[in-house]
């Protein structure tokens, strides 16, 4: 049963945004009191002109003092507990509606704080990274998650990686030339590697200097994107832990640049631009077609 004849979401307003090229939709369901089913998320991902890397769905907060609870969908309908660029886009939308310059947004990985840092610049506190192998999670014990052997190995992929959980699982491969990596081939194999029981977001990073990193990302549940904020955080943490970078660096992605800072309080802050592309409404026809 894949076909949906209609959806109560039809007619609701939705914001198309991007966080340095990471394509984000923001759908505020707090007032409507509705939820999004995975099949509805996939239908929106297929909608002409709407497609997204992440769909940020806002729901009534669970705790007093928070502005919203965020459910974060990938294009395959799977959920993520963290999305840095999407969170910064949500801050833009709610800030524009007068909800404040600093917001608290709840996720399945805990609350995140986000605030305006300039005209179209927003920052988010992604919290502390989790670095134990069970917390990533990895399927097998790894005594040092800075350097995990990729076993079984995959042709064309480096032999080892760093593992970091930023609310979601990340594997960071340091390579000589991220631009030459065949992500379309390597991405799916690594995302689904048996070491990752919850799959993983896959980063290919090159250290340019102590405070500049070049990065390309294959995202769990979505594929290659022009930017991934939590991956930029995971990469900075992996680099700093291994002495490859400072604890603050600029991370350059195909869609733009983020400043990532891993503070003395262990929290990781991300700052960068967001852009509102357009506001539209969900159409009934998006939900009418059965999934092939
Ligand atoms: N683009 C997002 C992360 C999406 C992660 C998602 N693909 C997953 O963990 O399943 C970001 O800016 O942090």
The CATH architecture of the largest domain comes to Roll
Count up the domains: 2
Helix and strand content put the structural class at alpha+beta
Tell me the strand order in the biggest sheet. 1-2-3-4-6-7-8-17
Q: What is the number of strand segments?
A: 17
Mean pLDDT score: 96
**Helical residue percent band:** 10-25%
CATH superfamily grouping of the largest domain = Diaminopimelate Epimerase, Chain A, domain 1
Catalytic activity: (2S,6S)-2,6-diaminopimelate = meso-2,6-diaminopimelate
GO biological process, one term: lysine biosynthetic process via diaminopimelate
Protein name: Diaminopimelate epimerase
Subunit structure: Homodimer.
Task: Output the keywords.
single chain; 292 residues; alpha+beta; Diaminopimelate Epimerase, Chain A, domain 1; eight-stranded mixed β-barrel; 4 helices; 15% helix; binds 2,6-diaminopimelic acid; Diaminopimelate epimerase; isomerase; DAP_epimerase_AS; diaminopimelate epimerase activity
Structure description:
The structure is a single chain. By secondary structure, this protein is an alpha+beta fold. It folds into two domains: 13-122 and 275-287, Diaminopimelate Epimerase, Chain A, domain 1 (Roll); 148-266, Diaminopimelate Epimerase, Chain A, domain 1 (Roll), CATH 3.10.310. Helix content is 15%, strand content 37%. The protein contains four helices and 17 strands. The protein has helices spanning 38-46, 84-96, 183-191, 229-241, and strands spanning 13-19, 22-28, 54-59, 68-74, 79-80, 102-107, 110-116, 121-125, 148-149, 160-165, 169-174, 201-209, 212-219, 223-225, 248-253, 256-262, 268-281. The chain has an eight-stranded mixed β-barrel. Strand 15 (248-253) and strand 16 form a beta hairpin. It starts with 12 loop residues before the first strand and ends in an 11-residue tail after the last strand. 45% of the residues are buried. The model has no long low-confidence stretch (mean pLDDT 96). 2,6-diaminopimelic acid binds next to helix 2 and helix 4.
